[in-house]
Amino acid sequence: MTEKDPDKEILDAEIVEESPTAPVEVPEPDYSEGGVPSFDHVRDRIEQRYTTSLGSTELAGLGGKEDVASLDKKIADRDKAAKDKLAEIRRAMREQ
């Protein structure tokens, strides 16, 4: 008695050849058959570029009510406050 090996089972299958099909050309979305973009597509692209520029300006700290001069003044004030605090700590260390 021999056990059946499932890997060596005989399979009965039919081979079907695929018939060649012509590729279907689908126009890009938001474009006409002639390749002209739709109004909605153009508007969306413009809005996307505008919001990207607003975001990068905001990340750079140049947007809104503050300009470069006011940001420079804030940085200078913070640096001065840090130096003053450091001098105060050093004076307190000497007194001990």
TrEMBL record:
Taxonomy of the source species: Bacteria, Bacillati, Actinomycetota, Actinomycetes, Pseudonocardiales
Comp. bias regions, Basic and acidic residues: 1-11
Organism: Amycolatopsis keratiniphila
Protein name: PspA domain-containing protein
Disordered: annotated span: 1-38
